[in-house]
Amino acid sequence: MTRALAVLLAASTISSPVLAQRGEVRSISPSDKQQGAAAHPQLVQEFGGAYRGPQAAFVTRVGQRVAVQSGLSNAGSDFTVTLLDSPVENAFAIPGGYVYVTRQLLALMNSEAELASVMGHEVGHVAARHSAGRNRTAQGSAIAAAVLGAVTGSSLAGRAASTVAQLVTLKYGRDQEYQADALGVRYMTAAGYNPYAAGDILAALDDSTGLSQQAAGQAGGNTPTWASTHPNGEDRVRRAEKLAADTGKPRPPQGAQDTAFLRMLNGLPYGPAGAGMRVSVVTVGPRDTVDTLSSRMAFPSYKRERFLVLNGLPADQPLKSGSLVKLIVRS
Ligand SMILES: [Zn+2]
Questions:
Q1: In angstroms, what is the span from residue 276 Cα to ligand 1's centroid?
Q2: How far, in Å, is the centroid of ligand 1 from the Cα of 231?
Q3: 122 alpha carbon to ligand 1 midpoint, in Å?
Q4: How many CA atoms lie within 13 A of 210 on its CB side?
Q5: Which candidate, 151, 168, 244, 328, has a CA 20 to 30 Å from the CA of 186?
Q6: How far is the CA of 224 from the centre of ligand 1 (A)?
């Protein structure tokens, strides 16, 4: 199984014909579909398995609703959207229409539109076939190593698994990220979502990454994060906001909440599997402050900072009574 997978991946990347120039493709090719289908189970396993809680169906529905706008699939059903049971914030896609988001990144989101923008970005990578160019170049030596492993029979499982991981861990070029952002904004807007959410989730990822670095030692280990695979930063946030403005859609009013989305997150496990932490969505009471609520966060340190980042809140504004906030609590 692992040997076959390593060889299949190697064969499909090394021998694939020269691809069309950069730009969107019209459909998912049978060879991409085959490559994706072969890598999918191992990839899912590598990232903690599929999370099958009530949020999984929601993620699939939003992902397919956005994916259909790419024109690659009439019903969006050619896209396999998986919510991963991983404590690392990330989202990625592989050839063949396989799109992934982790529950840790889902927990960071504050609206369905933010989820739609992440899905749109990843579908954009698929539509523009960004991984094809990436496989041919940067991944060549890794593939060669995997083939060598398969031929000599040395630590097959580990090599095959790391090859699969490399499908998603190598960085895209900056231009490819910008292109995926632009396609993502186009798809999500066509699907009826407010495009300003794209800048919001990119900013939230920046903040969360910064906080994780500050509070080093947080769960995650060697599994690649969004930050390690997506060149991000303020420039990308600004560009996303420009893309949103260019659609002509109005910016949502400040403080507007997607309460249905936030309630949907309630109960989602958080952090490492089995750590006994989950998202708890609570209503801000008239006497609640950032301090009273953040004191309930199930972390030994950075409670206040984590609370603000998790909820996308500015540090200097009082909470609005009656609004919803996310807490991370012990189950
Ligand atoms: Zn990307």
A1: 31
A2: 8
A3: 6
A4: 13
A5: 168
A6: 13
Report how far residue 28's alpha carbon sits from residue 33's, in angstroms, rounded to the nearest whole number. 7
Q: Could you tell me the distance, in angstroms and rounded to a whole number, from the CA of residue 297 to the centre of ligand 1?
A: 31
Q: pTM to 2 decimals?
A: 0.82
Per-residue pLDDT 10s for the chain (331 aa) are 333 333 333 323 322 233 333 456 678 888 889 989 999 999 999 899 999 999 999 999 999 999 999 999 877 788 999 999 999 999 999 889 999 999 999 999 999 999 999 999 999 999 998 877 655 444 433 433 333 333 333 344 444 555 566 666 567 888 899 999 999 999 999 999 999 999 999 999 999 988 988 887 544 455 666 666 665 677 899 999 999 999 999 999 988 999 999 999 999 999 999 899 999 999 999 999 999 999 999 999 999 999 999 999 998 889 999 999 999 999 8
What's the rounded Cα separation, in Å, for the pair 181 and 201? 12
Could you tell me the distance, in angstroms and rounded to a whole number, from the CA of residue 117 to the centre of ligand 1? Answer: 11
